[in-house]
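User: Some background: our group keeps a shared notebook of sequences we're curious about, and every so often someone picks one and asks for a predicted structure to add to the entry. Today it's my turn. The entry only has the sequence so far, pasted here. Could you supply the structure so I can complete it?
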Amino acid sequence: ETYHFELVANESGAAVTRVSLDHHVPIANAILTVENQAQAEARVEEKGRDAARVAVEMANLLDDLL
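Assistant: Of course. Here's the predicted structure to add to the notebook entry:
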C-alpha cells in the first residue's frame, strides 16, 4: 500500500551502480525485488543461475582486458 517496494528496488539498484562506478569494477545486479516469499521462491533458481553465468562472463571479459 506504500511505495516502499519501489524505493527499496530503486535504491538498491542505484547503490550497486554507485559501487561499480566508484571502484571501476563491473558488477552485475542480481537483487530480487519481490512482494512475498512465493515470488522469491519462484524466481530464485533461474535468477541465481543467470547471475552466476553473468559473473563468469564478466570475469572472463575483465581477464581479457588485463
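Suggested note for the entry: The radius of gyration is 14 Å. The longest helix spans residues 37-65.
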